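Hi everyone, sorry if this is the wrong subforum. Our group has a chain we'd like a structural model of before ordering constructs, and none of us has done structure prediction before. Sequence below.
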Amino acid sequence: MDGNDLVRVDIEGHVAKVVLNRPEKLNALNKQMWSMVGDSFAELNKMDSIRCIIFRGEGEKAVGPGADIKEFETERCNSETAAEYGQLMHKAVLAIASCKHPIVVRIRGLCIGGALELAAVCDLRIASSDSRFGIPVSRLGLVMSHFEMAGLIELVGKSTALEILFEGRVFGAEEAMDKGLLTKIVNPDELDEEVRKVVENICAGAPLVNRWHKKFANRIVEGLRQGEALTEEEIKEGFDCFDTNDFKE
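Answer:
Right subforum, don't worry. Here is the predicted structure as tokens:
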């Protein structure tokens, strides 16, 4: 497979799909793919025509099992190479977390390790009932860095995040839902239709309003985390929508 195809971006109308495209390795993320994920979401963030992004893995077996451990001997063999590798991971996580468009993750099969880290910073996570989850880094002697952990803690809370990391178990969709990792669970044969309906509903809404709501939600969480109050300009922005064509139409 051409390296340029390892992360595929398909755009149809107002909807973009970002696809981890390495099915022969269950979409395991190698160094190039981490970089491509970051670049792909950064580029989509510049496109005002996009109203929603679907993030998924190619095939029906996995979003991904995490990072490709076969690279570890060369790409994460010491603190220096691990830090360089980590920068690419951070770039990908930040590009998704800071993307202005609503992002829906379509989960079928494995969503483990780095794949779950990426899914955690998306907006909605829709999974088939036969999906599997976990972050078993403790079994590999690896540490999840501060920045990578932030999205997981924000999603499920400190105690549940630590439970997932301490135990290193792989668990099913029902438990993932109970832990707060998922938005919806559906039968495998209903997954694509459910994702389609959710994306259709998002696209039917005013795009600027959806972007503002996402921006405000992120800012509220950030402010609570850092103990910062909203500025006067940020408070005013909450009413700027009334001057837009989205509202007037």
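For your construct planning: The mean pLDDT is 91. The first strand starts at residue 7 and ends at 12.
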